[in-house]
Amino acid sequence: MNSQIEVSVNGDVRHFPREISVEQLLEQLSLNPALIVVERNGTILRRPHYTEITIENGDALELVHFVGGG
Amino acid sequence: MPTLMDSAVYDKPLVIAGRELRSRLMVGTGKYKSNDEMVAALDASGAEVVTVAVRRVDLDRANEEGMLHHLDPDQYLLLPNTAGCFTAEDAMRYARLGRAAGFTDWIKLEVLGDKDTLLPDTEATLRAARELVAEGFTVLAYTNDDLITALRLEDAGCAAVMPLASPIGSGLGLMNPFSIRTIKSRLEVPVIVDAGVGTASDAAITMEQGVDGILMNTALAAADDPVRMARAMGLATEAGRLAYLAGRMPRREQAVPSSPHAGMLD
Questions:
Q1: Of B36, B44, B211, B237, which is the most exposed, with the fewest CB atoms less than 10 Å away?
Q2: Are strands B77-80 and B19-21 parallel, antiparallel or unpaired?
Q3: H or E element that contains B222
Q4: Helix/strand number for chain B, H first, E second
Q5: How many whole angstroms separate alpha carbon B174 and alpha carbon B193?
């Protein structure tokens, strides 16, 4: 069994270890969970659940934050 | 900001969805040359409501700082927008992400219908407004200077209606004062003119129509000195508002002397 999973993150294909949580994934990408919103397969994940939610092979993630805008 | 303190004597504060705001000017955070310049301009403007966009994190610059590194949510009401969305569905998706990213259920709803003019798709805006209101959002809806759409947005439950002065980023100023006055006269929710002002006189003229507030971004960010322009806009917004409340003198096409005839020497 492949020890890696393939995940789309903001449109890029990335590989992560199996059983990785949302929290760990953000940490691996050097992102501060408090400032990021994670949408998985079109559903927004709630921040308090980042530690419990495991990313699955084939998931499509969108990681967004606030930027300057009118 | 002594001017804003003083203004409390002359005017009531703007209230949207039960929240009392310290300024009738709202400003965007886009297109500044640096974050320091943006922060200084926001401060100089006196605005409390500050719009932000929701975008993907740049993974190659993972430590790239988002807006929350620079703006204190206790000092500003960070108002997420749906800028750049061309369908109701996209706008609703961005609205939900904005609510999850921030600290408020307020959303500046914007659904565009044309890439060249960035004019709003009013039908899609209405549809998104109804759904977002049903989901508990406090919707401030960007729209055309069209009375019928403004009335429908109010009926849909929007907390404020935001007709344009002129196209986004154009700096052309208030193109149709009549339409804006008509909208203001017919709506009960606050009317905030959004987009198109270029300089301080535009802001004053807009506020002189009697609207409740004004939102701008490019007029500050694209000025040679955004911080000074921010201060000018804060003053002009207030000046226009007070001039409206004061009631201007009638226009006459004849001169009328200011000094008395009586008492002139023979």
A1: B36
A2: unpaired
A3: none
A4: 9, 10
A5: 9
| C-alpha distance from B52 to closest chain A C-alpha (Å) | 5
Please give the Cα distance from B242 to B231 (Å, whole number).
Answer: 17
Q: A49-70 pLDDT, tens per residue?
A: 999 999 999 999 999 999 999 8
Please answer whether residues B207 and B244 qualify as being in contact, where contact means their C-beta atoms are separated by less than 8 angstroms: yes
Q: Looking at CA atoms only, how far is residue A4 from chain B in angstroms?
A: 19
E strand or H helix that includes residue B77: strand B77-80
Would you call B51 and A44 a contact, using CB atoms and an 8 Å cutoff?
A: no
Q: What are the two backbone dihedrals, phi and then psi, of residue B112, each rounded to the nearest 5 degrees? A: -90, 150
CA distance B214 to B240: 11
Helix/strand/coil (H/E/C) assignment for every residue in A1-55: CCCEEEEEECCEEEEEECCCEHHHHHHHCCCCHHHCEEEECCEECCHHHCCCCEC
Q: Which residue of B has its CA nearest to A61?
A: B56
Cβ contact B54–A67 (<8 Å): yes
- Residue B231's region, left for phi above 0, alpha for psi from -120 to 50, else beta, is alpha
Please list the active-site residues of B. 108
Contact A66 B68 (CB under 8 A): yes
pLDDT in tens, B100-135: 998 899 999 999 999 999 999 999 999 999 999 999
